[in-house]
Each structure stands twice: as structure tokens, then as C-alpha cells.
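User: Here's a protein and a ligand (aspartic acid). What would the complex look like?
Assistant: Let me lay out the input and then the predicted complex.
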Amino acid sequence: MRQPRILIIYTGGTIGMIEDIETHALRPFDFTHLIDNVPKVKMLEYVIDNIQFNPPIDSSDMSIEHWKQMTRHIADNYDKYDGFVVLHGTDTMAYTASALSFMLEGLTKPVIITGSQLPIGEVRTDGEENLITALQIAAARDSDGLPMIREVAILFENYLWRGNRSTKRSADNFNAFKSNNYPALAKIGLGIDFDRKVLARPDHTTPLKANYNLDQSVLVVDLFPGLSETTLRHSLETPGIKGVVMRTYGAGNGPTASWFINAIADAVKRGIIILNVTQCVNGSVHATRYVSGDILSTTGVLSGHDITFEAAITKMMFLFGQKLSHDEVLLGLTTPICGEMTVK
Ligand code: ASP
């Protein structure tokens, strides 16, 4: 068996940060510092190469340009490596995982994103274990000899999650991520226990197609009791906006007041695409369960089913970036592309 070949893409994040001497605040530092703190990596006997962002960033600074860079690094090196490990800050990790899942169309190799809550230089760091486990997952093979993971996934502490189903759920806990509407792809304990029934098994014969165009003409409207007509109309009339992810109550419900329904219906008539996503951490939009959701759906608002906000907003940017017709975007938003939602 030849040695697994893994490419690490270091973007920054707490995992590689050090304390600023003057302010004591954490700031990103270079990859040599990071890897020097994990000498155990050598015990894996893999061929490991790396590319680092220059400069490495706190993931709060993540942008579409950074996603393009990651996509390019993976696409340009796709045939040379068995798997990819992306080291990333936790703050926007779920957005990056979602975006990459759409940008890397036809992916059949592992792209494992990880990071840590404590910097690698700290005695109790979770970074060492996360990095080593991510490398092992990126190198893992199924009984058919193909990669065990053939999608973008987030590895954090005890779980491997589908990337476009994940959400950061804790700023303090080592188990910082969760996929509330999809089972874990693997549980990490004494071993790495993959749940084969929930792993993506895309057609292995289609080549990778890297999509670099994302369109930023999107925004979010978050419902809350007290939202005014002026604020709502102002948001929906933002110049240049093509799509809105609307975070609604419970099973996809919103106010039944005519000022609200009319503002939404007017926006839809102007050609704005509105995707209904629930504010609940778990569960799905069921537009017709309550009158309040039913009325909303008559305006032409689309159901986002059980998609996360992170996947919804990046999917919109992706679809608008593909120069599709209005109807093709509508169809794309209501159809799962790479396991990001369940349509019952
Ligand atoms: N602010 C950091 C980041 O997202 C937090 C972390 O990595 O955990 O880059």
C-alpha cells in the first residue's frame, strides 16, 4: 500500500494562534509554529504537504475571495492528493464548509475542515487531536479502495459532521459543532466509527468541477415580534438585492398582518427570491401546517425545508453566481444539490 498523500490548507483560526505580548489577545500565526507543536503527525507516515494563507486569518475575516482561494488550491491539486485537510477558525467554519460543498461540484475526495477552541501551543489544546484525527479521516479508505469520505465535512472533537449541515453551537465547548438535522458521519472515541449509511456516495466517474462565481446580492431578514414595516420594506428594497433568506418562526411561520404579507408579496413580484428557513436549531419548515405559514407561502416564498442558515445563504450566492434563469434558481433552491437538505 502506498502512503496516503494529504494536502493541508492552513487558513488561520485559533488552532495556530499565539498571544499578542502587549494586548494578550489571540492573533493568527504561521504554519511552522503550528506543525512544530504536533510532532506526533510524523507517526502517521503519510506524505503531508501544506499551503498556507498569507497572512493566516481569524475566520471572522472570511470572504468569498478566501473561498475561491481554497477551491483553487483543492482543484489545482486534486489529482495529486488522496485527501485535503483545511485548518480554519471556528467562527465561520460552517459557512466555509457549506460554500465549498457547492463550489467543489462532483467532489469524490475528502475535504475535512477542522480547527480548535484552544491554540495548539496550550497544554490542554484540542487542536492536536483534531488535526491528527482529521488527517486520519482524510486518509481513510472504504472496502472498495475509494476514499471513505467523499464530501466536505467538519471534524471537531467527538464527531465528523456533513459540512453543509453543520452549525457552530458553542463558543466554549470542545464539541463546538453540531448538525441538528442530519446524523454524524462518524463518532470519534477509541476509534473512528463511520456510519456508512449516511455518507455521501457521489458518482465516482464524474470529474471535479470547480465553481468560482458567487454572487453577493443576498441578505437575511430575521423575524422578531416588533419588526416594523419600515425596516422590513427598507431591507427588501436594498438596491441590487436578488435573494433573501428569511429566518421565520417554528415550522416556517410569520405574522399574518397585511402590512407584512403585502411587503413580502411586493418583493416577490419585483423578482426577489425569498427562501423560508426556520429559526429553530432543529426541524424543518412545513409551510402549510399553520395558517401563519400557509398565508406566507401564497406570496411565493420558497420552503428551505431543513436547511441551515449557513447553507441557505451560501447556496443562494452560488446559484445566483451560475448565471441561471430566475426559474432555474427557484428550482435549485428547492432541490438538494449535495446533501444540504431533506425534502420530504
Ligand atoms: N475567532 C476565531 C476564528 O474563527 C475562533 C476560533 O478559531 O475558534 O478564527
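Summary: The mean pLDDT is 94.
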